[in-house]
Design a protein that fits this description.
The complex is a heterodimer of chains A (329) and B (200). Chain A is α+β, with helices and mostly antiparallel strands and 329 residues long. Chain A has eight helices and 18 strands. With 200 residues, chain B is mainly alpha-helical. Chain B contains nine helices and no strands. The chains are: A alpha+beta (329), B mainly alpha (200).
Chain lengths: 329, 200
């Protein structure tokens, strides 16, 4: 094995066939592996040293500074607050396809001249859609979703304001694009969840399998490629993107089976989700509980009041309810 | 304060005291190098950037744990190395489940983990090594220097470099292997030490 080939491997530039051969060579003898190890060492040292162009560092440094100041804010009192619930197994899986036409209020075929369907999912409901290309989409409560009658030849474009889980039928020639108020999410064929309510402070994309490309403002610099099990969280206020790996995807998709699942979810995020689901404004006037981590599983049929009552047991707070608002204090 | 004239000890003291300009200086000094290092394992710009940025956040948060003899570059490299290792390890754990499908990929990840594990970021040697690398590269013919830097800094494949320089791929390979040979020779003492430490 030549040094140049080894370096191409390190840079990730070896074509798959050569990579296979290279890995076979590594496995052949311990000496080969050691030879590689020494060259790798040399390369690492060379990569770490040297004079560099710092002109592109400005944005990166700004991000570091923002991360530092964000940490300061959340660091203060970090009590871990958990709601542990015994969940009895529920045998019946709710058929979400049932009754779509009854629950979907604004499903209007005729009003839209360009042949778009607009769907608005009401409070406390979920909708499963089968698109003309063979893809399946689940829409969560309070979601607005637009898709064309028939997809164009170039791509499959849909737009989302809310939460949806996509199982996209593979078609290399026709990328599937989900437009949100910030990022566009481009895929060929894969399963992923998007949490993107326009008014939410966050956009979350979680990938189950395949791969997705997230794009923003037509700027390649913003491109993000997700791998299975990864979740990208875009904070619209801080304009910061965080990537989490090793996500438990069964938790992420539990909503399509009719559960609210919280796993060390910050109180404020939990409240935001509940507020979307029950379409109720919730105001928290107790800033110290915003960062508490909540863990628990609730059925969608439970009332919002029931959930708050359970949460209250482990962390005392009070709430009052008016016609269209709940105030936690 | 002219930071590039400051000694390593002065820089460390300023950072311990919370001097943001010193922090910025250290950021600029090592950021690209750490990024190259992390990228050469993750092959993902976004992941590598995140890792290196988080490492700087950690340096700032842990500045009170530094002492005047701390080597900032070694400190940062250690954190970046650990975070990169964690990332690759997570990838491997996930791939293990679908092993048949990803045989080559999982072998590649294991090899990366092995490389990272056997890397020793020794406080004593790193600044000397840096100096040797820089001096060695500067002593090479200009053409070789340019080609080596394109390969190291831009992660271009040999084919791409060949296109860019209007040379054959073979001659690019020749320059790269020449640079590696000279570097290996100049660094031979240090590379042996590193391997000895790791085999213990």
């Amino acid at each position: 094995m030549t040094d140049e080939k080894i370096i191409e491997f390190i840079k990730g530039k070896l074509p798959p066939e050569d990579k296979s051969k290279f890995l076979d060579w590594i496995d052949e003898t311990p000496e080969n592996k050691e030879y590689y190890g020494r060259l790798r060492q040399l390369w690492d040292l060379a990569a770490l040293s040297g004079e560099y162009d710092t002109s592109g560092n400005k944005n990166a440094y700004a991000r570091v500074k923002r991360k530092i100041s964000e940490k300061k804010k959340t660091e203060v009192p970090k009590n871990i607050y958990r709601i542990v619930l015994d969940v009895t197994k529920i045998a019946a899986v709710i058929l979400i396809t049932f009754g779509i036409s009854r629950f979907v209020f604004n499903h209007s075929d005729t009003e839209s001249p360009v042949g778009f369907h607009h769907i608005e999912v009401p409070t406390g409901q979920r909708v499963k859609l089968s698109l003309s290309d063979g893809s399946t989409v689940w829409l969560n409560a309070g979601t607005k979703f637009t898709y064309p009658d028939k997809f164009s030849n170039a791509d499959r474009m849909v737009s989302l304001n809310g939460e949806a889980l996509f199982d996209v039928h593979h078609n290399e020639k026709q990328p599937f694009v989900v437009q949100t108020s910030t990022y566009s999410i481009k895929v060929l064929g894969t399963k992923f969840n998007v949490y993107a309510y326009d008014e939410s402070s966050k956009l979350e994309t979680t990938l189950f399998n395949g791969s997705v490309l997230m794009q923003k403002d037509n700027n390649v610099q913003n491109d993000i490629i997700l791998h299975p099990g990864q979740q990208a969280v875009f904070d619209k206020n801080g304009i910061a993107m965080t990537l989490y790996s090793g996500m438990d995807t069964t938790e992420i998709n539990s909503w399509i089976y009719g559960y609210h699942v919280f796993n060390k979810t910050p109180f404020c995020d939990m409240i935001e989700r509940l507020s979307h689901y029950y379409e109720k404004k919730i105001t928290v006037k107790l800033p110290e509980i915003l960062d508490y981590e909540c863990t628990g599983k609730f059925r969608h049929e439970e009332s919002l009041e029931h959930i708050l009552d359970v949460v209250k047991i482990s962390k005392p707070f009070r709430y009052k309810e008016t016609n269209n608002e709940i105030v936690i204090y | 304060m002219v930071y590039d004239k400051a000694s390593e000890k002065e820089l460390v003291s300023l950072i311990i005291l919370g001097d943001e300009k010193a922090f910025r200086f250290v950021f600029d000094k090592y950021y690209q190098g750490l990024l190259r290092f992390s990228y050469s394992y993750t092959h993902d710009t976004f992941v590598a950037e995140n890792i290196v940025q988080e490492s700087y956040v950690l340096l700032w948060e842990k500045k009170h744990e530094l002492d005047i003899h701390s080597n900032l570059h070694a400190f940062l490299t250690k954190i970046v190395k650990l975070k990169t290792w964690n990332h690759i390890e997570k990838q491997r754990r996930r791939i293990d489940i679908e092993k048949d499908l990803y045989d080559d990929f999982s072998r590649e990840l294991n090899l990366k983990l092995y490389s990272l594990e056997s890397m020793d970021v020794s406080d004593i040697y790193i600044s000397e090594i840096e100096k040797i690398i820089q001096e060695t590269l500067q002593a090479l013919p200009e053409q070789t220097q340019i080609i080596f830097k394109l390969s190291r800094d831009e992660f271009l494949s040999n084919r791409k470099i060949a296109e860019q320089m209007n040379l054959s791929e073979k001659s690019i390979e020749y320059h790269i292997s020449k640079a590696l040979k000279v570097l290996r020779l100049e660094l031979s003492d240090y590379l042996k030490i590193i391997l000895l430490i790791n085999s213990m």
